[in-house]
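Hi support team,

I've been running sequence recovery on a batch of backbones for a student project. Most finish fine, but this one hangs at about 90% for roughly twenty minutes before it completes. I'm not sure whether the input is malformed or the queue is just slow. I've pasted the structure tokens below so you can try to reproduce it. Let me know if you need the job ID as well.

Thanks,
M.K.
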């Protein structure tokens, strides 16, 4: 679709008439390209290939994707419609395994359809589109609230390290999650020095985080992943903020591969390590991070990272896309409902019980 609407670059997934428009994140930072998705297979592929990525955006895209899949359904009764919807939902759920927002958003769409059982099929379709819009709109409020709760953790002049990208384009809203307090502090005139880990193998830190922070006029410095320890030892980092893809009941948090190492380094250097997590990323059905399914991705992401081969042909490759940071390394989890400090489990359960009641 070309370089349209660059001013709204942060709106990385939206519904327009009868299609989904995404910011094609694999092309960044060289090209700001918006792509349209008109069939559910393209939605699956966009999620799988990380054209859309970041836990909240994966959820929002899947919700719109499910509506897209059934909007022209010719089902004559609810049972037929439900069979089609469930098939498409299971298909979309198979695109990526780790970020729980994907399953959470699809479950919300399914229960929206179930609640509407008995209504005409066209009305159910309308309600599904409204539900997808609502998931997106709520996310904007969630990120603003994360920013508000996390702001007091930031002081003027601080050095902040972040890993991967948990910013605007991962959430389709201005603030993001891990970057939310940084954006808000910047708006309020605080001077910060952000360090972005490159985040190999797919370089979300160098391609996306530095790109969006630069656009916002925030002081950002790129480092390779293996520089974090030295930068901490030099006293340049006073806090670490990261996003996450799934938080277990005990507070263990899965995020982009490399996050666990950063957390250990932060502990060793006495630096607070904060995880920003919308409640849609908390999965109280699992007791610990050991139960989180970690996505393994293609070998060529490691051997030909930037289009150039950097390893011998046929070398064996292990490419887990996420790791789990044990709760003991996490100083606090920042949600849209407030900050949770250790011990996490009882507080997480209480928070989630209240949240489920309010949906
Ligand atoms: O593989 P990605 O790029 O989807 O991984 C993204 C992350 O790990 C983010 O930190 C996480 O999803 C939070 S985004 C608000």
């Amino acid at each position: 679709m070309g370089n349209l609407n660059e001013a709204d670059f942060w709106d990385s997934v939206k519904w327009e008439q009868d299609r989904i428009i995404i910011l094609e994140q694999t092309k960044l930072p060289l090209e700001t390209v918006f792509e349209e998705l008109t069939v559910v297979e393209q939605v699956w592929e966009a999620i799988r290939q990380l054209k859309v990525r970041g836990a909240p955006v994966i959820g929002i895209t899947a919700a719109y994707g499910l509506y897209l899949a059934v909007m022209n359904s010719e089902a004559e009764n609810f049972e037929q419609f439900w069979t089609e919807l469930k098939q498409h939902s299971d298909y979309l759920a198979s695109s990526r395994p780790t970020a729980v927002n994907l399953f959470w958003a699809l479950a919300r769409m399914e229960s929206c359809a179930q609640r509407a059982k008995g209504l005409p099929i066209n009305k159910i379709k309308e309600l599904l589109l409204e539900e997808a819009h609502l998931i997106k709109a709520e996310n904007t409020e969630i990120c603003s609230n994360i920013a508000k709760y996390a702001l007091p953790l930031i002081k003027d002049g601080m050095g902040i390290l972040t890993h991967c990208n948990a910013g605007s384009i991962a959430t389709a809203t201005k603030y993001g999650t891990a970057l939310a307090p940084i954006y808000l502090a910047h708006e309020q005139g605080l001077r910060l020095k952000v360090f972005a880990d490159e985040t190999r193998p797919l370089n979300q830190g160098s391609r996306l985080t530095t790109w969006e922070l630069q656009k916002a006029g925030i002081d950002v410095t790129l480092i390779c992943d293996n520089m974090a320890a030295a930068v901490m030892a030099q006293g340049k980092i006073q806090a670490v903020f990261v996003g996450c893809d799934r938080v277990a009941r005990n507070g263990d948090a899965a995020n982009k591969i490399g996050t666990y190492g950063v957390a250990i380094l932060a502990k060793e250097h006495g630096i607070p390590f904060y995880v920003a997590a919308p409640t849609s990323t908390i999965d109280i059905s699992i007791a610990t991070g050991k139960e989180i399914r970690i996505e393994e991705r293609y070998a060529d992401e490691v051997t030909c990272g930037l289009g150039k081969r950097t390893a011998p042909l046929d070398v064996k490759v292990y490419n887990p896309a996420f790791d789990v940071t044990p709760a003991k390394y996490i100083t606090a989890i920042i949600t849209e409902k407030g900050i949770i400090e250790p011990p996490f489990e009882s507080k997480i359960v209480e928070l989630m019980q209240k949240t489920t009641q309010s949906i």
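--
Follow-up from support: It reproduced on our side and the slowdown came from queue contention, not your input. The longest helix spans residues 121-150. No action needed from you.
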